[in-house]
Amino acid sequence: GSYTNLGLAFKIIPQNVEWTKPVIGFGNSLIFRHKFGKNDLLKLYSNFGHSNLGMNFQDFENRLTGYQMKNDNVYNNLTYQNSFGEWTLQSGFSYSFNQDKIRLNDDKIRRMDDRWQGRLVLNKEIFKKSTLLFGGEVHQFQYHNDFNAYLANYT
């Protein structure tokens, strides 16, 4: 796992912004592998993270601007491979999620994306440097962007 807190560093090292919430972040990862038999392998990778910060700074017109951001993200990847005879089956699935919640003075901005992907491939070596492949892949994604009361969705 990981944890970051830059509060002490911001107190020791002079800054050109006023930190209302110093950068704080944490996350973790998981890796798992399992062989069920001689020719197959299952692998899982999972990762998540969270961060939070807030600051006041002078904009280009010398106005005090407040900025805050919270971020959450997740990524998962699962793969499976199995060989039987001269054929090899490879499959995979991944999912990711990311969300940013931003406040700029009185404006609220939220950006979110959700994505998953699946893949299945069957292959066979037919000559020393040639491989025959069959398979397919599918993607699904969705984006949301909010600005105050306005919402935009993309799929």
> How many angstroms separate the termini?
33 Å
Q: What average pLDDT do the residues reach? A: 92
Number of helices: 1
Helix content: under 10%
Shape: elongated
For the largest sheet, list the strands in their spatial order. 1-2-3-4-5-6-7-8
Low-pLDDT residue spans: none
Rg estimate, integer Å: 23 Å
Number of strands: 8
Q: Tell me the fraction of residues in β-strands, as a range.
A: over 45%
Q: Which structural class best describes the helix and strand composition?
A: mainly beta
Major sheet characteristics: 8 strands, antiparallel
- The SSE string, one letter per element, is EHEEEEEEE
Please identify the oligomeric state. Answer: single chain
How would you sum up this structure in a few lines?
The protein is mainly beta and 155 residues long. The chain has one helix at 7-12; strands spanning 2-5, 18-34, 40-58, 64-84, 87-104, 107-127, 130-147, 150-154. The mean pLDDT is 92.
Description:
By secondary structure, the protein is mainly beta. It has 1 helix and 8 strands. It has one helix spanning 7-12, and strands at residues 2-5, 18-34, 40-58, 64-84, 87-104, 107-127, 130-147, 150-154. Strands 1-2-3-4-5-6-7-8 form an 8-stranded antiparallel β-sheet. The model has no long low-confidence stretch (mean pLDDT 92).
List the helices and strands and how they pair.
Elements: E1 2-5, H1 7-12, E2 18-34, E3 40-58, E4 64-84, E5 87-104, E6 107-127, E7 130-147, E8 150-154
Antiparallel strand pairs: 1-2, 2-3, 3-4, 4-5, 5-6, 6-7, 7-8
